[in-house]
Amino acid sequence: MNLRRDYRSTRAALFDGIEEGGIQASSYSSHEIDEHENDRTIEGLQGRVNILKSLTGDIHEEVESHNRMLDRMGNDMDASRGILSGTMDRFKMIFETKSSRRMATLVASFVALFLLVYYLTK
């Protein structure tokens, strides 16, 4: 019996790594394979993060460019509004005086004639 126990303990020591699904050593290599897959996945994710980072940088530059363009357009609109209000003030002043009404009708007729000629030639 003692011999049998020694045989079982020796056998158990030899095949200690065997489990129902396979050898425990293969479990270690499976763990190693999982680590390599994780490393590859992490590298892929780092690549995607770098792409997203450059994309957001490009979007930021584009937004800044559009903001500058909108600021310039707003300033131009303010300048145009100032010019237009000055022109409207001059028209009001012209129509308030009777002698200037003749001049205004003359200018309006020239503008109408110009538009008519422009329309006919086009």
From TrEMBL:
<protein>
    <submittedName>
        <fullName>Bet1-like SNARE 1-1</fullName>
    </submittedName>
</protein>
<comment type="similarity">
    <text>Belongs to the BET1 family.</text>
</comment>
<dbReference type="InterPro" id="IPR000727">
    <property type="entry name" value="T_SNARE_dom"/>
</dbReference>
<keyword id="KW-0175">Coiled coil</keyword>
<comment type="function">
    <text>Required for vesicular transport from the ER to the Golgi complex. Functions as a SNARE associated with ER-derived vesicles.</text>
</comment>
<keyword id="KW-0813">Transport</keyword>
<dbReference type="GO" id="GO:0000139">
    <property type="term" value="C:Golgi membrane"/>
</dbReference>
<keyword id="KW-0333">Golgi apparatus</keyword>
<dbReference type="GO" id="GO:0015031">
    <property type="term" value="P:protein transport"/>
</dbReference>
<keyword id="KW-1133">Transmembrane helix</keyword>
<dbReference type="InterPro" id="IPR039899">
    <property type="entry name" value="BET1_SNARE"/>
</dbReference>
<dbReference type="GO" id="GO:0005789">
    <property type="term" value="C:endoplasmic reticulum membrane"/>
</dbReference>
<feature type="domain" description="T-SNARE coiled-coil homology">
    <location>
        <begin position="32"/>
        <end position="94"/>
    </location>
</feature>
<keyword id="KW-0256">Endoplasmic reticulum</keyword>
<keyword id="KW-0812">Transmembrane</keyword>
<keyword id="KW-0472">Membrane</keyword>
<keyword id="KW-0653">Protein transport</keyword>
<feature type="transmembrane region" description="Helical">
    <location>
        <begin position="103"/>
        <end position="121"/>
    </location>
</feature>
